[in-house]
Predict the 3D structure of the following.
Amino acid sequence: MNLKPAAKQVDDSSSATNVTTCKSSRHVFIPMPELLPRFVHLPAMDNNKTSNDLLVPTETIVAHCCTELFPDETIKATMPFRITRNGDIAVQEEDVIDLAGEMEEVLAARKTSNTVRLELPDKAPANLKRIVREVTGASPNEVYPLNGPLALSDFMSVAITPGYDDLRDESWQPQPSPIIEPGESIFTTLTDKDILLNHPYESFEPVLRFLEEAASDPHTIAIKQVLYRTASESRVIDALIKAAENGKQVTVLIELKARFDEARNLSRAGELQRAGVQIVYGVKGLKTHAKIALVIRNEDGLLKRYVHLGTGNYNESTSRLYTDVSYLTSLPAYGKDASLFFNAVTGRSKLTRFRKIIPAPTHMKPRLLELIAAEAKRAKNGETAKITAKINSLQDKEIIEALYKAAKQGVIIRLNIRGICCLKTGKRKEAKNIEVVSIIDRYLEHARIFSFHHGGRPLVYIASADWMTRNLDKRVELMIPIEDRPSKKRLIEILNSAFKDNTNAFRILDNGSSQRIERAKGAKRFRMQEHLQKQAHKAAKASAHIRSTTFDPHTPAEPRP
């Protein structure tokens, strides 16, 4: 492409080339299509023992083959570069009539929005750097010269290159839940007990079965679900479509404002709508980030509700990479609350106070502040008081101030935070009882679990929300009390394991920096994620043995009189 003032459109990943003929010189952009793989695998030569397999960046191959594109010209220099465009273009919802149409316009606008970052090689020719900066409109402080390859996140694809098993970590496979019989309907299991799943150590399969069985089951009347992010090839979407085609009443709230998943969610909404699913695009002025699915069945003439509640998305791909918790139950109180919740977010009713579930933005923050204050009161009265929480981020000022006050009263506070933490430890007098650790390991820590000592009768919750203002005040979220003893015990064990890790844990210091927690001399090595994986494997193996060695014989019926 000739670089003239009219040439405003530049692909986000391109290569700039300086091409010279005998009469003139010109600069050309060569776009790198997104469909192309980032790396090309060149196998070792069979007849050369010193030859190795190579993974060559596609832009390197394009630069090498530029003469094929310009056969009668001389290539003076080439330079790959990448730009990031402004993605902060939002729909103004106040007067929107067609949210889907408005979102399509936003997506189109992002493709030509202003440049906010220009990445290019540090040692590239100065004239190419200057030309690219001028054409992309990047200001000097938006230019990032890099001493190495661009887009390092693309190197994640190297991990799934076939072969090289000797270089890989030991495989950790998601395990079946020990409390779910493989040949038994998930609804039969839920009639007898609740199910808690700790992903990815335990498989996401029961959640998929929950939806797939409901889609085919003649007893199913309705399915209602909130979707925020889904997999590119989604069994969840397939199940919902099948349910609608089988005559079930299917209602799906699909959040069109999920950042950078807007296009996929628009497409998903269209698929579902064409299949006969009733679609809601979210709640005006708020993002709906709750993780909930409700199945309503007709059992012997009575309506019975089954609910899935979780901390992570309905995405079978990320369920193998992120740690999350799922809770499935048929308890009437949860089912009734789920129905009221869907009435609120798909109709025009209000988020009133529920018996069990605690929604944001109306009730979650007040309830958290109430729980923190209750622990502070116990500590002030000389009782044992503790708060343990596992979250992605802590930023909300009111929550932070409440934690400081509680710690000052003597509450022992332990926080496992993966990301943002705006609470300062150590320096402030009121922070002396607060410990913050972060686990950086194979899986991304994503679950939200809270425990309040409550005088020795712990109150335990899971949630879709972090302790951030955006979650607590600007999103529709859910916090769920877990009350059955086995599930509560498991969640407390998961929480405690984060503070035992002496392998991949980091302590947040009072200056905001992180310091790896070193194993004390003579202490046994403990790695939380490895421990939870082994625990899941051991439980699955034990339950498989019980199933294989336990027989249920047929016995004669009582003789008829």
Remarks:
- The two ends are 96 Å apart (CA to CA).
- The first strand starts at residue 13 and ends at 20.
- Confidence is low (pLDDT under 50) at residues 1-9.
